[in-house]
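The instructor's notes for this session suggest beginning with a concrete chain rather than abstract definitions. Hand out the sequence below and ask the class to guess, before any prediction is shown, which regions might be ordered.
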Amino acid sequence: MQVAMRSSLPSAYSAHEQLVQSVRAKPELWRLLVGLVIIAVVVTSMNLALFASVAGLGSYDWAESLLSGSSPAAMIVLLSSFSFVTLGVALAARQLQHRSLHSIFGPFGLGLSQFWRVFRALMLLTVVVAILPPYDMGQPLEQNLNFSRWLLLLPFSLAAVLIQTSAEEFLFRGYMQQSLAARFRSPVIWMAVPSLMFAAGHYAPSAAGENALLISVWSCIFGLFAADLTARAGTLGPAIALHFFNNIVALLFISLPDSLSGLALFVLPYDMSDTGMLRQWLYVDFAVMIASWLTARLVLRR
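After discussion, reveal the predicted structure:
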C-alpha cells in the first residue's frame, strides 16, 4: 500500500514523502477532522480569553481595534495571536497522530537553509520588479508611520509576521496537506483541499465588495504554489519564506488603509473594495506571485 502510494507521486514530489511517512501509521480521515475541531476550539477559546483580558483592562475601543489591526500595538498582538493556531496544530498532531511540530516542519537544518535561499532570491526579485515600470501605484502613497517609528518597530513587526505566516503554513501545508497525502494518492486532493480552505478564510465580501472573489482566487492559487514548494522541498521552509516575504510587503511596507494597516510604512490611497484601482493591481500581484513561485522553484533545483 505504502509503496503504491509512493510510486503514484510525481518524481518532483518524492521529497514530500519524508513529511508524510510519519502520518502513514495513522492515516484515517477522522483523525484529520477531529484534529481540525481541536485546533478550532483552541484558537477560539484562546482568542476569546485574549479579547476578554484586553477588554477587562477597561479599553473596549482598543480591544475592538484588535480585529482590524489599526494600530501598531493592536497589529502586533493580532499577528502574535496566530501562535494559538500553532499551539492547536501541535496538540492535534500529538494527540491524534503522535507527531511533533518538528516532524510537520521537516528536517530543521534543511528547512532553514531552504528558507533563507528562497527569501534571499525573493528579495532580489523584488529589487528587479521595483526598478521596472510602472513606477507607482497609480496614485501617491500615503505615509502611515514616520520612518523612525516604523524602523524602531521593525524587529517586533517581523517577528509577529513570522509567527502569523508560519502558523498558517503549519496548518494548511503542514497538518492538513500531510494528513491528506497519507490518505489519498492524488496531489490534486492533498494540494487543492487545503488551498480551497485557505481561500475560504480570505473571502470577505463585506470588506472587499466585488473584489472579494478575486482576492479569494488569488489566495487559492497562492496556496497551491505553497503546496507545490512544500512537496518539492520536503520541508515547510520555502512555503514559509514565500508567505513571510509576501506578508512583509503587504503588511509592513504598503498596506490597505481599511484593515491590518497598523504596522505599514505606507498605505494605499484606496481601500479593499475599490473595484477600479485595486483590481488593476491585483492582476499585477498575480504576475508577481507567479514570478515569486517560479523563482523559489528555481532556487530549490540548485
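Then share the key points. The mean pLDDT is 89. Residues 2-300 form one domain.
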